Amino acid sequence: MANILSEQPAQTLDKNGQEIKSVGFQRFGFDCEVSLDSLRSLYLRSHYVVSASESQVQELDAKEEGHGHQTQGPNAYQSKSIFHPETQSISYTTLSRFAPVKLLPPSSRKRVLVTGGAGFVGSHLVDRLMLLGHEVTVLDNFFTGSKTTVSHWVGHPNFELVRHDVVEPFMIECDQIYHLACPASPPHYQFNAVKTIKTSFMGTLNMLGLAKRTKARFLISSTSEVYGDPEVHPQPEDYWGHVNPIGPRACYDEGKRVAETLTYGFHNQDGVDVRVARIFNTYGPRMNPHDGRVVSNFIVQALRGEDMTVYGDGKQTRSFQYIHDLIDGLIALMNSDESRPVNIGNGDEFTIGEFAELVREIVEKVQEEDGVKLERRVQIVYKPIPTDDPQKRRPDTTRAKNSLQWQPRWSVRMGLEEMVRYYKAKMSEGSM
C-alpha cells in the first residue's frame, strides 16, 4: 500500500527568487488570496489515494472511522478511494470532508456563474472562488471539460454543477458571469467548425442576455488568436489583427472576434458591465494531454520516452504563462473598473525549439529526483508546420500592469516542473 503521488518541490520561487506561498491579492475591494498548499491539494494528487489488496481494505475502513479528527493538513480533505491492482478496479468514495472555505458574510459573498467551468482554466477559477467562500455555479456540456476537474466540490453547499450547452438559453440569478465556454485547442475547435463559431456567437449572446437581465458583471475570455498571425510585435490591445477569415483556424479566431463585437454591442447599447480578457498561451495541471497544445505535447512525449515533435524549424516564438497567474489576472480584471480589452499573458518569449529543450531538461531533472533510470535521451524531431500557424506571439501587458497592477509571478521553469509532476502522477495511476 503506497501513495503514488511524487513529493512536491521543497520551494516554489517566483521570477525574483522570492518564495511563492500564496496566490491572489487584496485589490479593488476583492480579497482573492489563498495559500498555495490549499490549491495544490486540489490538483496535485491522485484521483485515488491508496492501492490495496482485498486483505488491506478492512484495515483501511477501520482507520477511516476517525479520519476527520486524526488526519492533519490538506490530506484530511481528500478522497480515500481504493485502487485494486489485481483486478484493475477502483472503489470510489465521497470526500471525507471538503477543503476549508472562507466563511463570508452575505454582503461579501458573490453568486458567480462560470461557463466552461469544468475545463482547464475554468476548474482552476472555480477552485479559487470556492476557497474564497463564494457561491459558484458551473455550466458545462463536457465536450472538452471533465467532471473530474471539479468533482471534489460536488455536494458542497456553495457549489452547483449543471450539464448545459450555452448555445441554449439559461436562467439563473447571479452577480458575476465568467464566460469561458468554448473549445480552445485546434483539434477540438476544428472538430466541428460550425459548432465552434455557433458557441462563440450564440453562447455569448445568451450569457450577455442573462447579464443584462440580472445586472451581473460579465467577463468574456477572448484570446490572443484575435490578432491572427500578427504583423506588430509584441501585440498591444489596440492592434486590430491579421486574420485569415476562411482558414482552418477561422472558426475560433473569427468566433472570438465576433464575440468581442457582441460584448461591446451590449455594453454600448444596453449598458451591460463588461470585461474582455485576451488570454495568451497558458499551461498548467489539468490541461488535456491530447489537445495538441505544445506544452502538453512536449511533456507527455518526454515522460513516455518518445521523441519530442517540433512543427516547422522551431524558430517560431511563443510566450507561456502559468495557470495561477492567469486566474489572478481574470479575477483582477473582473473586479476592476477596466472595461477595455486587456491582454493577460507572460512576456517571456521562447522559440519553440528552445522551449522543447527546456521541457526535456526539466523532465530529466524530475525523473532523476524520483530515481527513474532513462534508457536513452529523448530526441527533438522536426516536422512540417501546420497551415496558418502564427510565427510570433507575445503580449504587450502594459495595460494590465497599469490598470490591474497585475504581472506574472511564476517563471516558466517553476510552472513546468509542477506540471511535469502532475502528469507524472496521472501516468502512474493509469488515468493518462
The value of Rg in angstroms is: 22 Å
Total beta-strand segments: 20
Quote the distance from N terminus to C terminus: 21 Å
Task: Work out the helix count.
Answer: 12
Molecular shape: globular
Reported for the largest beta sheet, the result is:
7 strands, parallel
Instruction: List segments where confidence is low: pLDDT < 50 over at least 5 consecutive residues.
Output: 1-9, 64-72
| Beta-strand proportion | 15-25%
- On the 0 to 100 scale, the average pLDDT is 85
Helix content: 25-40%
Structural class: alpha/beta
Q: Biggest sheet: strands side by side, in what order?
A: 10-9-8-11-12-13-18
Annotation keywords:
single chain; about 425 residues; alpha/beta; 7-stranded parallel β-sheet; 3-stranded mixed β-sheet; disordered N terminus
Give an account of the 3D structure:
This protein has 432 residues and is of the alpha/beta class. Helices cover 34% and strands 16% of the residues. Helix 6 packs parallel to helix 7, helix 8 runs parallel beside helix 10 and helix 10 crosses helix 12.
